[in-house]
Write the structure tokens for this entry.
Amino acid sequence: MIKDRPYTITEIKKLTPSVTSFLFKADDGTSIDFTPGMFAMLKHVDSSTGESIARAFSIANEPPSDHLEFVISLIHGRFTSKLDNAKIGDKYLVSAPYGQFRFDIGSSKKFLFLAGGTGIAPFMSMMRYAKRLNSDMNSVMLYSTKYANELIYKDQLDEYAKDSSFRLVTTVTRPQDGDGWTGETGHVNAEMIKKEVPDFMERVSYICGPPAFVKACKDALISIGVNPDNVKAEMWG
Ligand SMILES: Cc1cc2nc3c(=O)[nH]c(=O)nc-3n(C[C@H](O)[C@H](O)[C@H](O)COP(=O)(O)OP(=O)(O)OC[C@H]3O[C@@H](n4cnc5c(N)ncnc54)[C@H](O)[C@@H]3O)c2cc1C
């Protein structure tokens, strides 16, 4: 566990018009360990006023690591507005790891991952971790965004989906004329889960995203008979 440890931004990538990934490296070069799914508290300290503000962000890379990757929706709020003009070399304080949303890779051979928007972040950590371990897990991911251009990490997920042990289903809730979208449309619901994941009862489910997404997915799983003990969820906001 680390508390207010200095980290420096080493990479900034705009992934979509509103989502940016940030890579932070520990100034002292030490690695931290965590379970995929957990989050870090990122603190910004104003150099002139000394005022600080902190927010939780799910860790998107796999453990253990001396760097932390975050996928952040820049909504121009109190914290995210600090990141609007972030530059390589900017310093933040990190406390980590936190959270009960922990990927128990040994708990099952089969998983169902339900990701909404930037809620993909902890699943990237889980997928990368499973790859590193050469795990033989079988997983299906239903990944939902409002617009087609908001599907982040799509290339990496498509690459993972070349392996028959991982199936990716992407769904867009607000397809637009001319966006070229040919995949699923609409919200993740009980019908979509039954259609896309016929063996859903055999899977341990993980859900992450905005509160409405998490609640809808959880309700859908329970409505089709899934044991709530087999559903782990992380709600943002
Ligand atoms: C465990 C956990 C993990 C999280 N992980 C991530 C993560 O990986 N990536 C990430 O981007 N966020 C994540 N969040 C959310 C993050 O902590 C902040 O709440 C978010 O960045 C907004 O902070 P802010 O200070 O900029 O906004 P604030 O100034 O606190 O204002 C937030 C306001 O904006 C509204 N709002 C929230 N989301 C949106 C939106 N998408 N568009 C418009 N308005 C919105 C809220 O209703 C609220 O009124 C996580 C939260 C938790 C609790």
About this structure: The longest strand covers residues 2-14. The CA atoms of residues 32 and 64 lie 6 Å apart. Residues 39, 55-58, 70-73, 75, 77-80, 99, 118, 121, 234, 236-237 surround flavin-adenine dinucleotide (CB under 6 Å).
